[in-house]
Amino acid sequence: MVIAMQLRYGFRLYPNGPQLSALARAFGCARVVFNDALRVREDARVTGLPFVTSADLSKRLTASKKTPERAWLGEVSSVILQQSLRDLDSAYRKFFDGLKGKRPKMGPPRFKSKRDTRQAIRFTANAGWKITPGGKLRLPKVGDVPVKWSRTLPSTPTTVTVIKDSAGRCFASFIVETGPEGVLTPVTPQVGIDLGLGHFAVLSDGRKIDSPRFLRRAEKRLKRAQHNLSRKAKGSNNRNKARITLARAHARVADARREFHHQLSTKLIRENQAIAVEDLAVKGLARTRLAKSVHDAGWSQFVAMLAYKADRYGRAFVRIGRFEPPSQVCSACGVKDGPKPLHVREWTCRECGTVLDRDINAAVNIAKAAGLAVTACGARIRPGLVPAQREETGTRPEPHRTIVRQTGIAFL
Q1: Is-contact 171 10, C-beta < 8 A?
Q2: Regarding beta strands 346-348 and 355-357, do their DSSP bridges make them parallel or antiparallel, or are they unpaired?
Q3: Any bridge partners for residue 199, and if so which?
Q4: Could you say which of 63, 91, 173, 304 has the lowest number of CB atoms within 10 Å?
Q5: Measured between alpha carbons, how far is residue 52 from residues 42, 43, 48, 88, 319 in Å?
Q6: Most confident option among 8-22, 184-198, 328-342, 350-364
Q7: Three-state DSSP class for 104?
Q8: Residue-wise pLDDT tens digits, 294-323
Q9: How are beta strands 208-210 and 199-203 bridged, if at all?
Q10: Residues marked as catalytic
């Protein structure tokens, strides 16, 4: 069963000098509106007054634009200011839901800083933005911004979010509706995946996929950039240039890792009807001496891609409990042979005498659970939930919709 969903496509923007200034002005205005609204609610909480509603905040915003202190808010589109108030509402909603146990706990909303490495503004349909016949993105009070299109959008976008990252790059993130037209033809193979560090993934069919180790390979370059940054005077232009150089080096590593995850996850989804992985305790492993290697592998991002692509293309996706011992059970006879040190990569079953590769044996045991999610004809019995992807604060889909992120290009 494939559900209707909303996909997010990201494309690189190349604004010129005046457009960069207009975007910087818009980022700043959205930040000020967010901070002003947060201050109003915090003051009301401290003094014991009732919670200030969104309607009251919107009225205060309209009134403040008529004052000399905030008259410059009228230089940007009013839509992005209203969306900034929606972002604050979303932050409060997530905070209160965490207190009620409806979602993982998170802290209360915090004030934004102009020194934040990531800036974003959002334009909805009533903002008047559009894609010009020449392929540029026309933004109100910004202009026609060139876009690097890597693919065509499957439908008309509903919103666009302009993002500026720590490396100074600008992106346009479009949300589009998609239906079940992307369902792949059912296939027979099922696969279990054992994620690791020596090999990024070991499949139940015996294939081993080497770990690219993008961070390890770029460590010398990152070290030089970090050392160069530390030698610059704080507050100087040279320090800001060095910071951007370091941010771009880190961005190249993250982009290469994301591209690798996209290519591998898409290949596995196309080749297999059912996929099973182990639910790893990534947060716990990230507190050990293997932390850098764990973060370099990016297991969580890869598993999230598998999950949403499985739902999009009609495949089955199963997570095996993290307390299951796939590497301790013989895949031939099913006897549990107990835990083994990490340096033991092969072992012989004491019951049947089968010589087992530790990783392949674990992948085969994980694959057995994948067969529980499909019938003999390949139809899904229990479709899994689509995991929450990296989302833009305040974007609220329809109740029956799910937002996932589809990267349009490899951000290099």
Answers
A1: yes
A2: antiparallel
A3: 210
A4: 63
A5: 9, 10, 11, 12, 42
A6: 8-22
A7: coil
A8: 999 999 999 999 998 988 888 889 888 777
A9: antiparallel
A10: 194, 278, 359
The structure tokens listed for 396 are 């609220």
Q: For the segment 120-151, what is each residue's pLDDT rounded down to a tens digit? A: 999 998 998 999 999 999 999 999 999 999 98
Closest CA to 171 of 387, 405, 404, 386: 405
* 358: Cα within 13 Å, side-chain hemisphere: 15
What pLDDT does 15 receive? Answer: 96
Phi-psi region of 143 (alpha: psi -120 to 50; beta: other; left: phi over 0): left
pLDDT reported for residue 348: 79
Separation in Å, CA 145 to CA 74, 122, 139: 21, 15, 8
Give the C-alpha separation, 170 to 20, whole Å. 9
CA–CA distances in Å: residue 178 to residues 66, 79, 114, 175, 396: 42, 25, 36, 10, 16
Place of tokens 């720590």: 166
Nearby residues of 179 by Cβ (< 8 Å), 6 or more positions away: 4
Q: State the residue for tokens 């509402």.
A: 89
